[in-house]
Amino acid sequence: MKKLLVTGGAGFIGSNFVHYVLENTDLHVTVLDKLTYAGNKASLDGVPGKRLRFVQGDIVNAAAVEDLVQETDAIVHYAAESHNDNSLQDPRPFLETNIIGTYTLLEAARRHNKRFHHISTDEVYGDLELDDPERFNDLTPYNPSSPYSATKASSDLLVRAWVRSFGLQATISNCSNNYGPYQHVEKFIPRQITNVIDGIRPKLYGSGENVRDWIHANDHSSAVLTILEQGRIGETYLIGADGEKNNKDVVELILTAMGESAESYDHVVDRPGHDLRYAIDSTKLRTELGWTPKFPDFESGLASTVEWYRNNEAWWRPQKAVTEAKYAAQGQ
Ligand code: NAD
Ligand code: DAU
Questions:
Q1: Distance from C-alpha of 72 to C-alpha of 19, rounded to nearest angstrom
Q2: I need a surface site. Which of 4, 175, 267, 277 has the fewest CB within 10 A?
Q3: Is there an atom of ligand 2 within 6 Å of 155 CB?
Q4: Which ligand 1 atom lies nearest to the CA of residue 60?
């Protein structure tokens, strides 16, 4: 394998993966990205440029995808509409990109017999009670709650069908909540960090008891590369780093790390249908493929993420006011 096509490589996790691959392998990478509001070419600044090609294009467009798929050895498919709150306001782009876009790529991969790795989310499994001793694994039944997670579940099922019906050489990974550099300010952690920088109090949905299972984006990248290189075709691997924390604790950690009082945040209107808890059992990935996370310490990862947003205001500033205006209109 010499060449990768990375869809959504100008987004948060895709760009972290491109940095990781170009810094840790000799692979050549082509990024295919539509540059929606969530994509930013500047997220790819600083990578070894000779092994990176950037193509602006839409994965829904079969003609745009065809040659790029033909030329590559493997496709790593990150491109998606990714934000739950947006999917509650306007689900249509989620159906188009996440379902039709994935279908378009699968058909091209089938025509050209290419290795395909599909990036998905733990949200396809629905949510857990706070005291449930079980965590999600690859046999957990699908039970998505939001329009976003329903479209990701749909795309996973399409990949499984293409493996079974057409023999596509595909794997799937379902990862928990990522944090780290290059994450859009609409998302929980960057929103609160940039609020504190701007002197705005962090905003916690509802009671703040909801639990997310945090993993550093760098660990997600190393896991995806491991699955791409060693994963068994047709298998699903769950990626997680045992990082469960409730939202209230995360906000308090951010405030403390930024030198503010831990209580200086506001409770705002809750998200409709808000999933209570996600938790990943990544035993299969660890025992079968020998993967382990390198950044399991959330507090130090959070401190370096705070530093990144302090040092990279030019990257996030253009999105901040428009994002906050959208939230304000929703009472959030
Ligand atoms: P993001 O919103 O930051 O980035 C998405 C990228 O896809 C953007 O660069 C955007 O321009 C591009 N894109 C959107 N529609 C496109 C289209 N039609 N054609 C081509 N490019 C298009 O998202 P993210 O948080 O980096 O998530 C990336 C992937 O990882 C998604 O598939 C998401 O479901 C999955 N995932 C995310 C998380 C998380 O915590 N953020 C966790 C698990 C899985
Ligand atoms: O679990 C993986 C998923 O994680 C990915 O599939 C999604 O693409 C990604 O966006 C993320 O989904 P969440 O909905 O969990 O992430 P978000 O950052 O939107 O919210 C995290 C938690 O914080 C959630 O419980 C809602 C809450 N929240 C969010 C915002 C933006 C707040 O309390 N306040 C906020 O301002």
A1: 18
A2: 267
A3: no
A4: 18
CA angle in degrees (0–180, nearest 5) for 298-241-248: 45
Reported as a single tens digit per residue, the pLDDT across 111-168 is 999 999 999 999 999 999 999 999 999 999 999 999 999 999 999 999 999 999 999 9
Is 173 a pocket residue for ligand 2 (Cβ < 6 Å)? no
Pocket lining for ligand 1, CB < 6 angstroms:
7-8, 10-14, 33-36, 38-39, 58-60, 78-82, 97, 101, 119, 121, 152, 175, 177-178, 184
Task: Give CA angle at 252 (246, 254), nearest 5°.
Answer: 105
pLDDT of residue 48: 82
pTM confidence score: 0.99
Ordered domains of the chain (ranges, CATH): 3-184+216-240+277-296 (3.40.50.720)
